[in-house]
Amino acid sequence: MKSFFLLLLSTVLFSCSQSDKNASALKEKAGLNLEKVDFKEKLIEFLKSKIDSNVNSNPDYLKKGYSMPFDYPVAYKLDAWNGKDSFYGKAYYSKIIDSIAYYQDIYFNRIAFLTHNNKTVAILADAELKSDTVYNEFVKQLEKQFGRPTFRPQTTVDVFYEWSAKDRRIQIDYSKGVSMEAMSGKKTEVKQTFNMQMLIFSRAEGAKIDSIQQKNYAKTKEYKVMQGDFKLYKNDPQKNIVLMDSILNEKFK
Known about the structure:
The structure is a single chain. By secondary structure, the chain is of the alpha+beta class. Helix content is 33%, strand content 26%. It has helices at residues 2-30, 43-47, 59-64, 132-146, 203-220, 241-251, and strands at 32-33, 71-72, 89-93, 101-103, 106-108, 110-116, 119-129, 160-164, 168-181, 189-202. The strands form 2 sheets. It has a 7-stranded antiparallel sheet with strand order 2-3-6-7-10-9-8. It has a 3-stranded mixed sheet with strand order 1-4-5, with no helix packed on it. Strand 4 and strand 5 form a beta hairpin.
């Protein structure tokens, strides 16, 4: 009886230990819930040692004084999209870490925060999907949540969508690529990759950027866009053909 009790006790302890490990693993996998972003995230506290300082930085630009580390847009003095006010804020990117963030059942392995006046205004997340089907199902989920997209590509080249919610704009961009893995003594393995970026941008801040670009164009008749990874496609003539047509029609009247 005593030996049976000890065996039972050890089994219970082992089960508790396994449960704790599983709970810990799930907690680690959860990461940042992008669905609950409120633009009050303490990004430095969240990223800590996870910041990748090599992203959004160019040694040549630093030497020439075009921009400082983490400045956004990079080299804003070289490409002055808004004259003397071309500096917008800071952009902090994470290292590539499995499941650093998620939105419903999609997990992302890199996120980045954009700040303006020291406040978070946008979050960008990268994911590698298993197939086209996963992306298409995610689009359906977002349509169910936010309705029909408020902006979509007008060509067959791009694959992106935007939704407008009460306080945010949500943009997803999808692309396919190829990865190669070469190992000594083995045949090089080539496989197709399915990549998605998700951008969650403060609706108010996005509208301000659009307004700045429109006003600058009215003054200079040259449409300049704030370049960078956090670009909202609806505000960009290269992605928004209707916007491009209106600019060209005005120029060639």
